[in-house]
Amino acid sequence: MNSSRKHLVLLGAGRTHLQVLKSLARQGSAGMSVTLVAPHPYYIEAGMLPAHVAGDCALDDLRIPLDRLVEASGAAFVPAHVISLDASGRRVQLSSGDALPYDVLSVNVEPAVPREQIEEQMPGARRNALFTHPLENFVQLWPQLQSLAQERALQVAVVGSDVPAIELAMAVAHALAAPHGSRVTLVAGDNPLLADQPALQRRVLARLKALNITVLQDRCVGMDGRALQLATGATLVCDAPLLADGATTPAWLLQAGLQANDAGEPAVNERLQSDSHRQIFIVPDGAPLEVGPVLDANLRTAIAGGTFKKAPPAGSRLRVVACGGGQAIAVWGPLGLEGREVWHWKDRRDRRQLAGLFEA
């Protein structure tokens, strides 16, 4: 690394960071050295994971190698996990043993599963459950469950209550129904599914029923290799528990000494900067594509000076839910559509957006 140039470190190969790399490939990186740190040399599009599980798209459709984009951008790639962040000393401790210094830092990482905390809430989870995060681990282990379902009928439980958990339950139901009739239960917690979105709730519940997915308004409080223990005292026979809830901000970021908001998360301003450490930028989970150009411009401003841009407000009210089997639901406020045409629209949109991230 050229010590005369400022050092920009990108933690995580999230979608917004891919947009930054694409900009670097097109516009260059004058005045700075850039390093990308990520655990794996791939990007996995989380929004297409249910389609892959359902058998509607191949793994190579949603897991894209980073090498060409990184090379075109001029960035260095470091395959490592983050161990800790020293915000005051401007250093990142990596699993490789290296301490990586930075002038400007950007964080766009996959949500992390606090396995020790989940183990306290659900004893047996670490040994028995298949976690959906990290995504790379899930896509490697999922074929083993598919193979087992080819041998005998399975009782599968998806633990989670948000849209990704619902999509996963429907995808698994499609994928494992044949040849032995594996069954899926969605363990959705104490509160009704999608209670704040009645139009979407109505259509989703109907689709879950059509797929013979049992929805339990109960919490999992433990598991072994044969069953889940529920908060009501009931036992649910289960061969394969899938944990689709609980992913959150990584511990190393929460423990970095950054100013926190009321929810205990790092406080970030409208320019995506930490409120307490302005040389650190944090991309919110699920940020829309419109955030990419703003982050790119603000990172360049932080390096070279200039005027910062404001991130756009929350994205569209359109909610699209993949239902497996080439079906999807789209809802805008009280209005909704569902069926194969919605799925084709979603699939084309997802593929177009993904391809756009890696175009030269």
TrEMBL record:
Source taxonomy: Bacteria, Pseudomonadati, Pseudomonadota, Betaproteobacteria, Burkholderiales
Pfam families: Pyr_redox_2 (PF07992)
Name of the protein this chain belongs to: FAD-dependent oxidoreductase
Cofactors, names only: FAD
Gene Ontology BP annotations: aerobic electron transport chain
This protein's record includes keyword Cell inner membrane: no
SUPFAM superfamilies documented for this protein: FAD/NAD(P)-binding domain
Keyword Metal-binding: no
Gene3D superfamilies given in the database record: 3.50.50.100
InterPro entries recorded: FAD/NAD-bd_sf, FAD/NAD-binding_dom, NADH-Q_oxidoreductase
